[in-house]
Structures are given as C-alpha cells and as structure tokens.
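Section handout, structural biology tutorial.
Before the tutorial, make sure you can parse a SMILES string by hand: atoms, branches in parentheses, ring closures as digits. In the record below the ligand is S-adenosylmethionine, and the chain has 174 residues. In the tutorial you will relate the predicted structure tokens back to the input. Do not try to memorize them.
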Amino acid sequence: MIPSRESYTPSHPGLFVVDFKSGDFASALVATKNFEVDEVMTSLKGCTKSPKAYSTVQCGVGQDDHLELNSDLVYVNHSCEPNVAFDLSGDYSQWHLRALKPIRAGDFLTFFYPSTEWDMDQPFDCVCNAPSCLGRISGASVLSKDVLLARHFVSPWILAAVAERDRKHVNGGQ
Ligand SMILES: C[S@@+](CC[C@H](N)C(=O)[O-])C[C@H]1O[C@@H](n2cnc3c(N)ncnc32)[C@H](O)[C@@H]1O
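Predicted structure of the complex:
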C-alpha cells in the first residue's frame, strides 16, 4: 500500500519523512538524520511482488520481478546524480537502502531509477537539475554501460541485460 497524506504515520521514524506536496507525483522523501557514505540506511523488509507500476522497484530479470515497497520509501525520487541506492543484490535478507554520498538531515533522498529499472512503466522528463541530467528517464534499456556506471551503483540484472543487449548489437541482433 502507498502511504498517503491522510492519517500519515512515518514508516521509518527517526530516519526519513515524506514531504507531501500538492500536484501529481510532486512529493518526496527527506532524511531526518545524517548518514555517511556507504552507510546502510535501512533494510528493505515488507516488500511484496507486484505487477510493474510507477511505484514498483525491479528486483531481477523475470517478468514477475517487481516489488511494491509498502512504505515511505516509494517517495524516493529519481536523480541523475543520486545520493542513495536501492541494493537488491543477493538474497532478500540482504536487500537495503544505502547512502552513496554524505546525507544531512533535511536532504531529499534520490536514486537513479535506471539502476534497478530496465524498461519503466511510467517514463518522465527529469527535473533533477543535476549538471549531468539525462532528460527523459525511461529505464536502463536505452542507456549505455558507461552512463549507468557513472552513477556509482547498478543492479547486477541491469548489467547482465546491458551486456546481452550490447552482445546482440555487435552480432547483428543474433
Ligand atoms: C515512485 S514515484 C516517486 C514519488 C512521487 N514523487 C510521488 O509524489 O508519488 C515515481 C514518480 O515520481 C515522479 N518523479 C520522480 N523523480 C522525478 C524526477 N527526477 N523528475 C520528474 N519526475 C520525477 C515521476 O512521475 C515518477 O513516475
């Protein structure tokens, strides 16, 4: 279930809070404490498999490998220069949200959506304003390996899919 402004209770008290804004998809998640680089900010417990949607996070290559986060973490927006990573490598017990940069209380939390998503359900024109902003965000399928690696974290299934795509391209689609 996606948390809403009505009767809001933070899912991660002491760590993050949703900054609800009026307008479609205008809300965001904000840190309420400092985090250091590489710090595990929270585990990703309570996710459930779900059809691909604007709100899901991809967790593997299969058709069914999409998760609803069922928490305030759904409000982590995309940035082309992100400060967190959704790391769903390894088994479920190891899945976590990790800081990629020093984060201070009050900072918006952002991840690079193509680091988990191959072909997004709801592409959008990015408003992150980062110097390296890519503009249209639709998933990793249209991005080069170098563009992905420059964002510091890429999920293993995305790297595997990029390698397969590039191998087919070199071999003329075979
Ligand atoms: C999982 S939601 C993130 C929370 C969303 N901001 C909300 O209020 O529900 C993903 C959607 O948020 C919007 N979004 C996230 N990051 C964005 C960005 N950098 N630029 C433009 N829209 C963004 C897009 O509409 C995207 O499909």
